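Lecture 7 notes. Example A: sequence first, then its structure tokens.
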Amino acid sequence: MEFLRDTWHLFVRLIRATMRMPVFVIISIVQPVLWVLLFGQLFKSVTTIPGFGASSYVQFLAPGISIMTALFGAAYSGMGLLADIDRGVLDRLLATPVSRGALIAGRILHAAVQVVVQAGIILLVAFILGARPHGGLPGVLAVFLSASLLGAAFAGFSNALALIARRQELVIAAMNFVVLPSTFLSSMIMSRNLMPGWIRGASRFNPVNWAVTAARDGFEGRAPSEMMLCLALLAGFALICGFLATRSFGRYRKAM
């Protein structure tokens, strides 16, 4: 119960900090809309390629952009932790009885809620443009769950990296190195049927592709077997990243 209470208080602190930055809130809302509109128009002709497997690119794109938003939004979660380190906030928190796990869980929960809100905006815009969740409400929830699990995982990894590196430049460079290849080694914006063989093989081990596959299967109302496997893999990946982030506090305290 203490862990849950600490996590809640830290989560509320981050929500309040976010709401004090109206520009950030506006950008977080507008950016997903722009992605849907721009990507939807730029790549809409690819559905005419034989073997693509979809007649509407907006329908195909909606789950993928939801996952892209989660990925890019959570990957730099560690920057907020670095700001707390620079201001001495983290050191003061570590001097209290607060759970070390709650310090990470609060940030992971904040990242997960943020990406779910953005995913909801994306699906709403896609619905206006003609996309329809053939999986119904469970399919929409599958998109939210996939986005939140991936967001939680990358938020944990980003915070672990921030605690170990303690330099913004290194965190940004490392996350850019991970995020962009993960994006293009997935079926986020291109059908798996049209991928080169080696990319299709590599995507099987890519957590981003697990999230895209689970979200798209749920959104399209496909058989749940592959979706459930991908969600289980995502949950395990998120737990590992959260554990690494919590363990990184020991490394941080030794470097103080």
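Example B, a different protein, same format:
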Amino acid sequence: MKKFIGTIKNIWAIEDLRTRILITLVFAVIYRFGSYIVLPGIDPNVASESLANQAANNGLLNLLSMFSGGAFTHASIFALGIMPYISASIVIQLLCVAVPSFQKIQREGESGRRKINQYTRALTLVILMIQAPAYLFNLQHQMGPAMPEMTWNFLLPSTIIMAAGSMFILWLGERITDKGIGNGVSLIIMLGIIARLPEAFGQELGFRYNNGGLVMFLIEIIILFGAVLVAILLVQGTRKIPVQYAKRIMGNQQVGGARQYLPLKVFSANVMPIIFAQALMFIPGIVAGALAGDASAAAIAFRDTQGLWYNLLTAILIVAFTYFYTAITMNPVQMAEDMKRNNGFIPGVRPGKETAEYIDGVMSRITFPGSLILAFIAIMPVFAGLIDVRPEFAQFFGGTSLLILVGVVLDTLQQIESHLMMRHYDGLLSSGRIRGRSMSAY
């Protein structure tokens, strides 16, 4: 406890770090306040009840509600949250891999990065102009007569308000990255997830208390703690490949000759495979309903988010998407070329093609167990439900919620520790340093 208090004092003593943390907190409060501002003309109580019931039975809508911190179910001006920007980022990321002109822009350094950001924002606006009306029409379907008439006098202003709300969230995220601490977009996603934790925790505690199951509640907390540890191991797990750099003479000095390591993440795909899988899981239910009818056993099985077939197919998709996303984001050929250009080589492996094949083989071996663990973590909330954990609290036992929380917290703590170490203070740990990861996927 004394060490913890001393660390807090050190953090507060650094003016720049203190200012960054306060700025981050102010922007976080602004974001949470905006999540409760309801669109004009909509009854928030009716909208919340209707959308909450729909999100509970739809994996993709539940994901949107989770990322928006409940703004989606509140019919808030921030209802679409940061998801349109994430979708645009994924599309641009895929284009940078598949389209030569985007690859050329990406290699232009800082100017190329600015162009990519401009394209991402423009695509975000396009997605918002599509998603906002779709959200409003879905809201009308759920609320019925309680919803205002879908005329241009309501549709156009509401679309502009929701689009402006999402772009304002993106602006907040960028300001947090520049002026605050941590990755702004990632922190906003984390705020949306963690905003639901106190209520879910209170509901679970009340449920166990009223049913005489406080011992079971303690067991749940222990299981949750174990799930967090597994998530930390997965996020921080790396396979280090030794790289030797040849000695060379520059002027009158000898440089190079040092041995470094190429770290390959076990979890290089981040949470993207889970998001992809959950986004596509509505397709099997639609197909089964079209072929055999909505009341068929197959259609019901593939729409039951707690059922065997739904979760088995989700796990298979996560494994497949882990390989896919790792393949498009990690380029062994480019790694081998960069290594060769800097006079580096892997001991026992020839530079060039053989180095690329070696790196690709190592990545394939570490991706398989990583994908299996990722799939298991994704369906952990279902196992939590089998021991009567309430669905709201079960979401924190695994899936996207747990992985994002762990990743963002580690990344933010790493930045705080860097500020402390730079000013010759002790780090956050008594031994070693925190090894976070960048949430660059967002």
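Note on Example B: The beta strands are 238-245, 248-250, 253-255, 259-265, 344-345. Residues 414 and 434 are 6 Å apart (CA to CA).
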